[in-house]
Amino acid sequence: MSVDTARILPLRNGAGTNPKIVAKNIQKYFGNVLAMEDISCSINEREFVAIIGPSGCGKSTFLYLIAGFEKASHGELLINNVPITGPGPDRGIVFQEFVLFPWLTVLRNVTLGLDIKGVQRQEAEERARKWIRLTGLSGFEDAYPSTLSGGMKQRVAIARALTYDPEVLLLDEPFGALDVQTKNYMIQDLQNLWLEANRTIVMITHSVSEAVQLADRVLVLSSRPSRIIADVAIKLPHPRDLRDPLLRRHEDEITAILSAEVDKAMSLERQASAKAERRGS
Question: Which of 130, 185, 227, 255 gives a 20 to 30 Å CA spacing to 220?
Fold first, then answer.
């Protein structure tokens, strides 16, 4: 399938009307292994950006760099024009697995960050109940995680992250542990939550359909060592329907880019393997 390059924007390396996050020439080594070759991009205020790429390309690693859990080997990573040096309250993160405390109720799980921060109990509960309601969990405030479905547990994790009132919400494959039907409901919910929260969201996903349903832009990473090979704008209103032919066209375009990248990586691996065999013979 050919790629319609007219619908793919040039890479926005540090540009943007009101950039929230800026990555400049990011490289990341793990020992002697180069995981990221050159990641340069800008993510704007209140923008929803999805990051997708082949397995093992470093999608989650880039998210952890933004979160402050990892440090870049080279380059510069900024939030609000200030270097990221570690985790901070301006960023909230939701993982693929449901990171909840089983001995705490839904309400106490959601207020946990505010409790640690020293926010008064009444204010913490008021803020928590707002996001509990908006995530569809009203009536479950006193329930424990063991009594909740997978989708409900992930809603608790999202409510907790938003209750802390971060400027940026980081999502690391948030639907990966959910069944298909629950995932579809959660995608619809997340579109509404994003509009309500009015926050910058960066989501890692391996699903092209998730990316095009949710994001304003989709950044496509190459195989390791990774770099950004496409920055695709999805200029369609929310909520989106995957049956929309324009959305399907975006999905086909991104799938074509990924398929070409995977084919290229496999070809290089075969060439390297054949070269190694010739040297050994």
Answer: 185
Diameter over CA atoms, the chain: 74
Residues 13 and 127 in one domain: no
- Bridge partners (DSSP) of residue 232 are 218
- As given in the structure block, the two tokens for residue 236 are 């369609």
Is pLDDT at 255 greater than 80 in this prediction?
Answer: yes
Q: How many domains does the chain have?
A: 2
| Domain finish residue from 165, 187, 213 | 165
Q: What pLDDT, in 10s, does the model give residues 194-233?
A: 877 788 999 999 999 999 999 999 999 999 899 999 999 9
Query: Model confidence over 33-43: pLDDT tens digits?
Result: 999 999 999 99
- 230's CB contacts (< 8 A; 6+ apart) are 8, 11, 218, 219, 220, 254, 257
Looking at residue 57, its pLDDT comes to 87
**Cβ contact 99:261 at 8 Å:** no
Global pTM?
0.85
- Which H or E run includes 269? helix 245-280
Say which CATH number the domain at 183 has: 3.40.50.300
* 65 vs 169: CA distance, rounded Å: 14
Q: List the alpha helices (DSSP H) in 146-226.
A: 150-163, 180-197, 208-214
Q: Give the domain-ending residue among 108, 130, 165.
A: 165
DSSP 94-143: E-SS----TTS-HHHHHHHHHHHHT--HHHHHHHHHHHHHHTT-TT-TT-
The residue written with tokens 């929803």 in the block is 48
- Label residue 191 by pLDDT band (50, 70, 90): confident
Amino acid identity at 41 = C
Residue 195 identity: L
Q: Containing H/E element for 227?
A: strand 226-233
